[in-house]
From TrEMBL, chain A:
Keywords: Transferase. GO terms for molecular function: CoA-transferase activity. InterPro entries: 3-oxoacid_CoA-transf_A, CoA_trans_fam_I, CoA_transf_BS, NagB/RpiA_transferase-like. This is CoA transferase subunit A. Belongs to the 3-oxoacid CoA-transferase subunit A family. PANTHER family: ACETATE COA-TRANSFERASE SUBUNIT ALPHA, KETOACID-COENZYME A TRANSFERASE. NCBIfam families: pcaI_scoA_fam (TIGR02429). SMART domains: CoA_trans. It comes from the Bacteria.
UniProtKB/TrEMBL annotation, chain B:
This is 3-oxoacid CoA-transferase subunit B. InterPro entries: 3-oxoacid_CoA-transf_B, CoA_trans_fam_I, NagB/RpiA_transferase-like. It comes from Sphingomonas chungangi. Belongs to the 3-oxoacid CoA-transferase subunit B family. Keywords: Transferase. GO terms for molecular function: CoA-transferase activity. SUPFAM superfamilies: NagB/RpiA/CoA transferase-like. Signal peptide: none annotated. Transmembrane segments: none annotated.
Amino acid sequence: MVQKIYSNAVAALDGHLIDGMTIVAGGFGLCGIPETLIAAIRAAGTRDLTVVSNNAGVDDFGLGLLLRTRQIRKMISSYVGENREFERQYLAGELEIEFSPQGTLAERMRAGGAGIAGFYTRTGVGTSLAEGREVRVFDSETYLLERGIVADLAIVKAWRADPHGNLVFRKAARNFNPLAATCGRVTIVEVEEFVGSGEIDPDHIHTPGVFVQRLILAENNEKRIEQRTIRAEAA
Amino acid sequence: MEVLPTGWTRNEMAKLAAIELQDGFYVNLGIGIPTLVANHIGPEIDVTLQSENGMLGLGPYPMADQVDADIINAGKQTITELPRTSYCSSADSFGMIRGGHIQLSILGAMEVAENGDIANWMMPGKMVKGPGGAMDLVAGVRRIIVLMDHVSKDGIAKFRRSCSLPLTGQNVVDMVITNLAIFERPDRQSPFVLRRLAPGIDAALVADLTEAHFER
């Protein structure tokens, strides 16, 4: 059996980090982000990255760590509002941003991973994001052409994996992770726990192992909360 | 300086929007005032709230000892599950939205135009932070209700002939609830009609503070 489990992030990323590459990352806000792999990419110092991720982290956590070290040249995201360093670099012209509506971004990952070059959506029609783009009318509705995304590397956070790379995500930490897992030429996944072969019910697997090349045990599981909201008593 | 009547409070606006929720509806509530709508859903109405990050069936905020970093809504707030809750990927979640499976979305806006255009993703004079899921929601959800102040902080009408800010979507708004009045249209080919006035507000004042054409 091919050994997919690597001893740590450095070993798993070995040979897959090249300046100027495109990396797709799972996560929504700080939920379900591949903390361990982001830290390892920061330590490796890979530069001029194009990063495809719904958000850009916060100043001192998530992808914000790679912005601080100026390793990212371009972001493809739907919303980048929680990051002051991002704003500074963007306004200084040091960082490029391509906005993609959230659902369109998710579908672009899904399409890229499924071998679909592009698709038509009503999202964004008549907005500035549609400028210069192909539109087509189907059944008297106007649709916008969007391209699938394939990245050099996908970094993903999952809850559980078996040695075959079959993945289970946990709750809302699933978000973009199963989509990112499909659209990397190489997909590296960090997991909160490993289980043995056959220990995940085949009916309960979210991402089949065919999409996953390398696995590590996540060393960083801080899971920082952006908006801790609580109520005083039972509703 | 003339003091304008304030009309409905934000909470009252949310309560008015909650009347539009029907039994069995799947609903997406935007960030801000729309979130308050959840507090006004009566016990006789069974509504399932959707959050576009990939959660269907949102529960209330957690008690301090229930907080789970993996259970958040689209505003990145910690929330809880319900017995009906399901999770899905963001592609499936937006499949629900774009595919017309969500009956209603209630959103905030900077501007709405008389033809149903909405602008709510670029703040004037601020860095553009991106549309998030707003463009997908207005393009895909079957009915869109906007909750917003009637005029901006500078006293400029927010319900306008045409939007001055970059659009989020074209001809997508079905109902506008402001602190002064409610406007609605039966379909997306028809003009908006003034449906209701806040207490102490008369139609002449609303006409004065509205740039959009509307029927009475």
